[in-house]
Write a structure and sequence with these properties.
With 339 residues, the protein is mainly β. The chain folds into two domains: 120 residues, Immunoglobulin-like (Sandwich); 144 residues, Sandwich (Immunoglobulin-like), CATH 2.60.40.
């Protein structure tokens, strides 16, 4: 990723699908060129939850999806709009961040369906894909949502509200930019690595993303070199995977097939996903897992590459880049974690 590039919401020809160990939840769209070859190509894919191999965000395609607009790249969709009350946040300062989702009638929506134990999931990440946070706001009344938010440094951030309105056929992922004033230089995307470390845990990913094919990804969690076999349920699953596309930050929040207590899903060390990416390019993967009462996030860069092409050439990244070592914000009663 060129740090001189102005990071914006590019509508690229992209589709990403993650499903469970048996079923495959799909987000379908035309195959684009390379990941970062154009900022003007059009593609069709959705953003949202996948559970037990089924896309719970879009059981019925929305008008925007039918028109080829990627999920999470719009502040308004199907008459619903994400409205932050404070779009500018002082970096490093804990802020009571509030927002509403207004409906087709222009009024704040007050009735949301519960998905994965929460009525609304809130993802915040800097536009260079650093500073990831997965938060869960609380309802403050009259359609207002509130969440403690600390942006780690200056820059432009992308916030995603992932939800389903009560009675609607499917869910939505709306996105808006937040601004933290100050000097900022975008960091290059870390090189692709098989292993990430966080708080003494080592997470290893097996499998490769191949455009146009279903790819098996298995993420294995170890602590002090020993397999973790007692992962704890978090939001109804043993692992949660958020995928963001480099360049346009197209969003998808996914879950593995199966659930704790179903008699067949093991509590680690392996968490398996199936992924389908129809175009070459770079992706940032964020795996949330809970152990010993704390939610942690392991981060990976993955390149979807065509056969015989080096990953660096596919994504326009030099091989010499050093990967970032994730740090973790521990659960502190605010139901938040991130980097």
């Amino acid at each position: 990723m060129n740090t001189a590039t102005k990071l914006g919401a590019y509508a690229l020809g992209l589709a990403v699908a993650f499903g469970g160990a048996i079923g495959v939840g799909r987000l379908v769209g035309p195959v684009g060129a390379s990941a970062e070859s154009t900022a003007s190509g059009e593609g069709a894919h959705n953003g949202g939850h996948t559970e037990n191999g089924k896309n719970t965000t879009g059981g019925t395609s929305t008008k925007a999806e039918a028109a080829g607009v990627p999920g999470g790249l719009q502040v308004s969709q199907d008459g619903y709009t994400l409205v932050p009350q404070t779009p500018t946040v002082t970096p490093g300062k804990r802020t009571d961040f509030r927002f509403t989702v207004t409906g087709p009638d222009g009024r704040p929506v007050t009735k949301f369906a519960t998905a994965h134990d929460k009525k609304l999931h809130f993802i915040v990440v800097r536009r260079d894909l650093g500073g990831f946070q997965h938060l869960h706001p609380v309802e403050a009344g009259k359609g207002v949502w509130s969440v403690p938010l600390t942006l780690p440094g200056a820059g432009t951030y992308r916030a995603f509200a992932d939800f389903q309105v009560e009675g609607a056929d499917g869910g939505l992922t709306l996105g808006t930019d937040l601004f933290a004033p100050g000097d900022f230089a975008a960091a290059p995307l870390p090189a692709a690595e098989r292993t990430a470390t966080v708080d003494g845990y080592t997470v290893t990913v097996k499998g490769d993303l191949t455009p146009g094919q279903t790819s098996k990804l298995t993420l294995s969690v170890r602590k002090d070199g020993k397999p973790v076999t007692d992962l704890q349920p978090y939001l109804g699953a043993y692992g949660h995977l958020v995928a963001l596309r480099g360049g346009d930050l197209a969003y998808l929040h996914v879950h593995p097939d199966g659930e704790p207590g179903d008699g067949k899903t093991k509590a680690g060390p392996d968490i398996t996903f199936y992924a389908e990416v129809p175009s070459a390019g770079s992706y940032r993967l964020y795996l949330d897992f809970q152990h010993e009462g704390v939610v942690r996030t392991a981060e990976f860069t993955a390149h979807a590459k065509t056969t015989g092409t080096p990953p660096a050439a596919e994504a326009g990244q030099p091989n010499s880049q050093e990967s970032r070592t994730p740090s973790t914000s521990h659960a502190d009663g605010d139901d938040e974690h991130g980097h």
